[in-house]
Amino acid sequence: MLPDRDGGKTGRLALPWLVGAIPPECLRSDKHVAQQACCIPDNLGMNPLLAKLQPYPFERLKQLFASVTPNTALKPISLGIGEPKHATPAFIQASLKTAVATGLSAYPATAGEPALRRACAAWLKTRYDLTLDPATQVLPINGSREALFALTQTVIDPTRPGATVVSPNPFYQIYEGAALLSGATPYYVPSDPARNFANDWDSVPAAVWARTQLVFVCSPGNPTGAVMPLSEWEKLFALSDQYGFVIASDECYSEIYFREKAPLGGLEAAHQLGRTDFKRLIAFTSLSKRSNVPGLRSGFVAGDAAIIKQFLLYRTYHGSAMSPVVQAASVAAWGDEAHVVDNRNQYRTKFAQVTPVLADVLDVKLPDASFYLWAGVPAGWQGDDAAFAKALYGAESVTVLPGSYLARDFNGSNPGQGRIRMALVAETAECLEAAERIARFVRAHPQKMDPGSSPV
Ligand SMILES: Cc1ncc(COP(=O)(O)O)c(C=O)c1O
Which residues approach ligand 1 with their CB closer than 6 A? Predict the structure, then answer.
């Protein structure tokens, strides 16, 4: 929190407890405090990089909807937040309960128990037919979110001029926050709707690559659901060899897919291209979506042993050891595939029913993977995704996330503009009901509504 001021009217400090934090030269007498307090910067004693952080998309959505009264005749349905809602498997709950008896009486090691690291490595073998050393190439993390952030702090050297982090656009906002707080500057690479939302890596100038230290890949992508093909991996690996940047491959949606073939993983791609040491590559895998345990906070990273060694060092100081109770439940979860197949089938059924209803009225199709639909709003809405989301909420009590909130205006365009993200995480019947209401809304309002004439 920034220090409170007297309502911002005079810019003077209003809180007496702050006196202790004021430089001695300002403290000649109490009388001087009020006069001199204006020499104290707003971020008193705090990291100035915090001021660079952007509001989270859901904060912006809350503000967008603040003046809207949703249709009270209809039960509100949210397709806004991408939080898994399918039931947590009973065997994972049971293993948590069992582990409580012995798992709370000692501090855990940051590296995790060998049994957990072995379970993660065994999963990589089952899923990708890859053999990694559990001792040096695998590390447990408390969900991919914290680890995406922490790895960035480990990798970035802000003392090198122009430290740059390359991020997809649209993107998961942690990439940007992690880059900014590490002292780097994000460079956004647009996704191209004409190429199944592939990121246009070719749009990055050589001068930017030359100062790039880290590249985020999100495959399957949030919000696009696109899986990055081998040819794109080949391109990125060649660039990484040329410029020396690390690739952080966020793969938390890898187990929710709609095609016959499971999504290609970053480590799998590297292996296929003969990069068996996974040089400068770290893949992030999570149980949250795979096993419906977003509250467990469990995942792992795997890849380049040299980076993992430094990452472990960073994490030891950061204090990110995983609770032994969570470790025990994670070993059970990684060891079972039946519940993953069942979970995937639930999404497949849901997407098979919901997508055609929406495809009748919006520019949308079944994605490769993930649990999102990334749809274009009707042309009559002139690309105004926020106005569409707001009017839809007012008329039909359905929440969708404006695509422009998930992307940045960069190099003259916002690749999320004119799109909305719908997270199909609720039960099929609820998602279907939402889709039918959206279809009804679009048929009634093919053109952008005049705010005065609408329920907005
Ligand atoms: C693209 C992406 N990466 C990472 C995460 C974080 O997932 P978790 O921390 O639960 O593993 C999310 C969560 O929604 C996400 O959408």
Answer: 82, 143-145, 172, 218, 222, 250, 252, 286, 288, 294, 299
